[in-house]
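Incident log, structure service

09:12 report received: a user says their structure output differs between two submissions of the same chain.
09:20 pulled the input from the user's history:
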Amino acid sequence: MKTSEQLSTVNNLNIEAEARIYRTLRHFWHPVAYAQDLVGAPIGFTLCGQDIVIARMEGDVVAFDDLCAHRGTKLSLGQILDDCLLECPYHGWRYDKNGNCAIVPARPDLAAGIKKRIRKYPTEERFGMIWVSLVDEPHFPLPDYPQWNESEYHHVAVPAVDWACSAPRRVENYTDYSHFPILHDKTLGDRNLPEVPPHEVWREENRLENRQGEGSWIHVPVDTAAWGGKDLPTESHIRFSGDWRVFMPLTCVLNLLFEDGKRYHLFFHPTPISPKKIRNFTIASRDFGNPDDRDKELGEFVTMVYEQDRPVVESQRPEELPENLSEEMHIGGIDTFSIDYRRWLLALADELEE
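09:34 re-ran on a clean worker, output below:
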């Protein structure tokens, strides 16, 4: 049995490891808003503790420090003028899409000579999301999601919600096979069929792959609302195979293939607001069902599942992922994905530590 002093030392190591991982997350792309929500007014967001403002200007998506160079007011409280200028709400200073001060209303003659600019961050609009990097050269490229461009799919931006947990804890929750039949009984699994199917885990460039073996199927109870208006099968359970991918460090892609060949996908990223607060961004996609029903049958279903997960994940202790894997119990063939994921996170933290 560990002494209180030993436990304190272990906890401090876990906290430091988690802090290193959190600092590392600044080196990657993160979604900060859905593209459909960035219309007209600018949007403020806190990414890894950094307040930023995002906006559309002259057809481009831009991101700056959410801080006017004049008196430090949040620019996200301002407005976009003529589709080309971001105006501060306090004294009306206006900035162009490169972050340069273009207009000083109180002294128009000074604007041309003011060299002060607001910091601009790399941005991309991809998969219906606005992505931002806090560094000029992100460590990995944006993840892949080819289904976004396939015409047979219809997509839903699931309402983004904040959780009180670390981003890696949420990723582990998302990729955990064995909690489905227990926590999500009758929606994603069946507690009478709790066995985890055979699967393998491996690294592939910038992602961790987790795929079931040939012929392995997960059985879930039939629920027409849950599965997007699927025709009721003759059996009492729907069978599907699937694979999980994590584009390091945080983007999860779940690919499900139903027994009848229909496809369902979730593209998910828990963007870190702070060490213990995230915002869940999810695109749900399917190639079946009525597109007019997608918000209810996809969006509402995913939201319901998330609300089952939320109190459990927020309750996990320690809040930090233990650096020493022996601090938690891991079961071979079940928790392999989590083990490999943690090892890669720690390796990235070691590589990118400033």
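09:41 both user submissions now match this output. Likely a transient worker issue. Closing.
09:42 reviewer note: Confidence is low (pLDDT under 50) at residues 1-13. The longest helix spans residues 294-315.
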